[in-house]
Amino acid sequence: MTALTTDRQPWRLGPRGERWFDVALVAVLALPALAFLVNESVDVGVFILLETLPLLWRRRRPALVFAAIAMASLAQVAVLDLPTSGQAAFPIALYSVARYGRPAATAAAVVVGFAAAGVASWDWLKEYDETSRAAYVSYFLSMVTVVVAAWALGALGRTREAYVAALIERGERIARDAEQRVELAAQEERARIAREMHDVVAHGLTTIVVQADGARYAAATSPETAGRALATISETGRQSLTEMRSLLGLLRSDDTGTAPVPTLSDLPRLVAGEEGVSADLPGADVQVPPGVGLAAYRIVQEALTNVRKHAGPEARARVAVRVAADAVDVTVTDDGRGATAPDDGRGHGIAGMRERAAVHGGTFRAGPRAGGGFEVVARIPHKGATRGVAGGSKQ
């Protein structure tokens, strides 16, 4: 929420409060008219009402209200020789034009106010023959001061209202922008979790299916091989469940989902569970930013999943991960079917790997090799690396 929605918000009357305020103002100014009407000074009472009642519409029709009050004041000058309390409505009407009216109407109202100050000064002092010019000028300047003050207060109120409206609009725009940023962040997080879930499920289930098929064929002739396959199935299942719990924890309000995510140091363990895969992992013991390490791990994981799914049962693969001063280079190759591998068009593996590399400003390339097989090459930039706990490699 913005500061304008807190207790420090400028105090303002609402539409209903403004109506009641105008009614109260007119009631106070028109109250003396009752005394004149009761005392048979009907003309004075009528002029007070003519000058004050239009103020009820001063916010909606400021120019028209000012014109009505100015004409009533001019008529009063022609009929009465003395001012009345109703003429207090004149500067209020001028203030209303400056506050709610157009600039042209405001300028005309100020000119009329100056003229009214001169006419009123002459009318109210003409009965005194000994009145000097200095007294007339003094009286005129006093009334001009009232006109200028009414205009200045109206202009100041108009400026303040415009400023507050601009602040409110800016606060609403900031709130909308914040909501959009939160929504975009949520969409990015959902896409990230979807990629993670795809990698975990695809890798785990593919490994389990391949090992289960091997165990089924080896059960009768080689119980030891079947036992190793079942052990691999068990280990892969547990690892996949652990990673899925970590991801699903991000979606639960009562779970922080802070289980560690895979990094480069987990690559030896990933490769060790694969049959027919050799590895060159000199960078597995290097600490890189977590996002970079996770991206490299997932690219290797997805590439090996594609090897098992598409390269063929006898295919062999090789994984190479090297950490340079400014990037992590990942290469996964196999000697399988390559361009002749079947593709049902429903997979998202290559697109996911490309997205992971692009998120970090890296490059990605995947396709059949000229001599047969398939190759995945990714380069993921990073801002620095440090040597950590030594990993392993499988040759």
Spell out the blueprint of helices and strands.
Elements: H1 15-38, H2 42-52, H3 62-79, H4 89-100, H5 103-125, H6 133-218, H7 223-249, H8 267-272, E1 277-280, E2 286-287, H9 290-311, E3 317-323, E4 327-334, H10 349-359, E5 363-368, E6 374-381, E7 386-387
Parallel strand pairs: 1-3
Antiparallel strand pairs: 2-7, 3-4, 4-6, 5-6
Helix pairs in contact: 1-2, 2-3, 3-4, 3-5, 4-5, 4-6, 5-6, 6-7, 6-9, 9-10
How would you describe this structure to a colleague?
The chain has helices spanning 15-38, 42-52, 62-79, 89-100, 103-125, 133-218, 223-249, 267-272, 290-311, 349-359; strands at residues 277-280, 286-287, 317-323, 327-334, 363-368, 374-381, 386-387. It is α+β, with helices and mostly antiparallel strands. It has 2 domains: 3-176, no CATH class; 263-395, Heat Shock Protein 90 (2-Layer Sandwich), CATH 3.30.565. A 5-stranded mixed β-sheet has the order 1-3-4-6-5. A two-stranded antiparallel sheet has the order 2-7. GO terms for molecular function: ATP binding; phosphorelay sensor kinase activity; protein dimerization activity. This is histidine kinase. It catalyses: ATP + protein L-histidine = ADP + protein N-phospho-L-histidine. It is an enzyme of class 2 (transferase).
